[in-house]
Amino acid sequence: MLSYLFSMTRNILIITLLLYSTIMNAQTKNDAWLEKLLYDKASPLLTNILNNPDTFHYQLIYTQINRDKNNKPSFKHYYLHVDRNQYFNPASTVKMPVAFLALEKFNKMNKPGVNKFTTMLTDSAYTGQTTVTADSSAENGMPSVSQYIRKIFLVSDNDAYNRLYEFVGQKNINERLWQMGYKNFRLTRRFVKATPEENRHTNPVRFLDDKGNLLYRQPEAYSDVNFDFSKKILIGNAHYDRDENFINAPMDFTAHNNAPLEDLQQIMQSVLFHQYTPAKKRFLLTGDDYAFLFQYMSELPFESTYPKYDTTEFFDSYTKFFWFRAGKQKIPEHIRVFNKTGWSYGFLTDIAYIVDFKNNIEFMLTGNIYVNSDGILNDDKYEYEETGYPFFKEIGNIIYDYELQRERKYTPKLDEFMMKYK
Fold first, then answer.
1. pLDDT tens digits, 248-303
2. Is the distance from CB of 119 to CB of 144 less than 8 angstroms?
3. 277-270-179-220 Cα dihedral, nearest 10 degrees
4. What mean pLDDT comes out for the span 61-79?
5. Does residue 8 sit within a domain?
6. How far apart are CA 384 and CA 288, in angstroms?
7. Which of 22, 147, 169, 274 is least crowded, fewest Cβ atoms below 10 Å from its Cβ?
8. Which H helix or E strand runs over 36?
9. Distance between CA atoms of residues 46 and 38, nearest Å
10. What are phi and psi of 85, to 5 degrees?
């Protein structure tokens, strides 16, 4: 009898553990094929990262693209430790949807003479707000949404994002993304020291013609959007606060920006392949908008005249993590990367579409990693160079080498992604 009871108890325990494991794993997307591909080719460094998902909190999406006889693409996503409930700080990746929404706003406004190239002056009307009346990086010396978007994709400029955040408005940003189905997205802040209330208030802006005449005035706005902060998000062991005081406690990200990796990948895909995206998931953009975005999502700093960059600081791969960033590599002329990166608090993220025009290869890679071995946030001591960038480089190399030998029934025609650069 005791033996029988012991056996029954053991079986119940095993079943309980299996059920618990199934429930936990259901939250995380994993593909054994992708995991094996990486392990088979991994260096000791990459193997160590892959073996320690709880340390590096990495997530990876490899999107395989196949074309039919009419060049219509189909997408197959492979996942590794992808979990929309696992928080990572999205940093500058949130600039991407805000740039798309800024262009969309013009198309919804439909104001004569007011577009992405029109001079936009930013005024102030609330505490913490600052003004912009000139832009020395622009050819005409004046600020515009087009110039802000160029700077966002070329070098991930923070002020450029802040100005688009103010133009679109916190409420409109979030409600539009939720309407498109990105329910877990949350954009609460600019990239400048500001209180939550100051981030809810956005600046008035004015649009002027070439002679300085007022075309349109947008008043200041207040966001009454209701965010769900019920899930507490604490990261690290200690941190420095905004006044550089050392706090011996985890950093609280509960009210910070949030952008699940899958959503970022889908947003990027929806613009690059807008013709093949359901209407609900498409931004309201024009053909000219798409051409403009393709240009600056893939252009390199040395190819830009306005803005002009010091290429010793802003080298080719400054914002190209997959495959190139480690070692500040020169990117071959036949390869283009359409992407958006983000880095802060030890988190590195890249959402990329990679095209090789010489070998007729295309694929998407989206990933992030956390490299902060001392567990202290805001101390600017992260292992970006030692661990983070090499992670992206090696993953990019493995997937590219696989794509080189992968058989395709139809060769993709990639002319729409061939831009004219400097």
1. 999 999 999 999 999 999 999 999 999 999 999 999 999 999 999 999 999 999 99
2. yes
3. -140
4. 98
5. no
6. 36
7. 22
8. helix 32-41
9. 9
10. -90, -5
Q: Are 115 and 215 in contact (CB under 8 A)?
A: no
Do the domain assignments include residue 240?
yes
Residue 347 domain boundaries? 32-417
Q: Would strands 234-235 and 205-208 be described as parallel, antiparallel, or unpaired?
A: unpaired
Residue percentage of the chain with pLDDT more than 90: 90
Q: Which residues pair with 153 in a beta bridge?
A: none
**Residue 66: which of 77, 52, 80, 81 has the closest Cα?**
77
Name the nearest CA neighbour of 364 among 61, 103, 34, 122: 61
Angle among Cα 345, 347, 350 to the nearest 5 degrees reads: 140
* pLDDT at 325 (0 to 100): 76
Measured over the CA atoms of residue 321, residue 37, residue 65 and residue 60, the dihedral's sign is negative
Please report whether residue 12 resides in a domain.
Answer: no
Beta bridge partners, 204, equal none
Q: What does DSSP say about strands 251-252 and 234-235: parallel, antiparallel, or unpaired? A: antiparallel
SS (H, E, C) 97-115: HHHHHHHHHHHHHCCCCCC
pLDDT in tens, 114-171: 999 999 999 999 999 999 999 999 999 999 999 999 999 999 999 999 999 999 999 9
Give every strand in the sheet of 205-208, ordered side by side: 119-122, 205-208, 214-218
Contacts of 93 (CB under 8 A, 6+ apart): 259, 264, 340, 341, 342, 349, 351
Written as six digits, the tokens of 355 are: 């095209």
Bigger pLDDT: 27 or 52? 52
335-344 and 214-218 beta bridge pairing: unpaired
Q: Residue 303 burial (CB < 10 Å; 0-12/13-18/19+)?
A: middle
**Residue 380 tokens, joined:** 């600017």
User: What number is the average pLDDT over the span 397-415?
Assistant: 97
Is the pLDDT assigned to residue 200 strictly greater than 70? yes
Residue 183 in 3-state DSSP?
Answer: coil
Any domain includes 22 = no
CATH of the domain at 366: 3.40.710.10
As a whole number of angstroms, the distance between CA 358 and CA 365 comes to 19
Q: Which helix (DSSP H) or strand (DSSP E) does residue 218 occupy? A: strand 214-218
Tell me the pLDDT of the chain averaged across its residues. Answer: 93
**Count of domains forming the chain:** 1
Q: How far apart are the first and last CA of the chain?
A: 84
User: Over 70: is that where the pLDDT of 32 sits?
Assistant: yes
